[in-house]
Design a protein that fits this description.
Rossmann fold, about 50% helix
């Protein structure tokens, strides 16, 4: 039997969402003039809120505005390392660290499953001792990252599909796996319903209500 602990990242492990912070900090370090484009990024966010564009398109647009459409992998790696160091030093719930350590000690394989881009989420996962990362990918042209998603945005039902594909790639049958899943957000409901053990960690109101209806464990790592 394979024992897997699958964690969402933003607001489950980290205090706050990471994407905007990563964009702003990286733009400041690499091309400060791009911060003048933040109002345009704000308009894109309003368009998303109004349903004019989807979540994936919003991610691509903000990537292009703040990081550019051709970010060398070497620069992306340096930015990811700087950001990961900052997040792990001061932006992770103590309760999350304790649970990760407990799962590792119990022999669980640690998997980070996040809608964040893998090119920086992987740096955070490495520092936290995760064994694998399932995340949103970006298109590459040689050694350059483009402002376009490769495949699907790892969110909602797509996240579950990507987890299942990862399991298949590892040669693990679902019937041979015991899966614990940790998340703060109801968008992970497809994955939570699929898991064997569910922990609603720091849940927002809709997930808290769903957890109570399903009898799932609720933990507030912020306390």
């Amino acid at each position: 039997m394979h024992h897997l602990s699958v964690y969402d990242m933003d607001k489950t492990i980290t205090y706050a969402p990471t994407w905007t912070s990563f964009l702003v900090r990286t733009a400041w370090a690499q091309a400060p003039w791009r911060l003048a484009l933040l109002p345009v990024a704000g308009l894109a966010t309003l368009a998303y809120a109004a349903g004019v564009i989807g979540r994936a398109r919003l991610k691509e647009m903000t990537h292009a505005l703040l990081l550019g459409d051709a970010l060398p992998e070497a620069k992306a790696a340096r930015a990811a390392a700087r950001f990961a160091d900052r997040i792990v030093a001061s932006g992770v719930y103590a309760g999350a660290l304790a649970q990760i350590a407990a799962d590792r000690a119990a022999g669980y394989r640690l998997v980070l499953a996040t809608a964040s881009y893998g090119f920086y989420a992987s740096a955070i996962a490495e520092r936290l001792g995760f064994d694998a990362v399932i995340a949103t990918g970006v298109e590459r042209a040689g050694t350059v990252l483009r402002a376009r998603i490769a495949g699907e945005n790892c969110y909602g039902a797509a996240k579950l599909g990507m987890i299942e594909a990862w399991l298949a790639g590892q040669g693990i049958a679902r019937t041979d796996a015991l899966v614990r899943f940790y998340s703060d957000h109801v968008s992970d409901a497809p994955s939570l319903e699929w898991a064997d053990v569910v922990i609603a960690a720091n849940p927002h109101a809709p997930l808290r209500a769903l957890a109570h209806a399903r009898g799932w464990t609720v933990e507030d790592w912020a306390r």
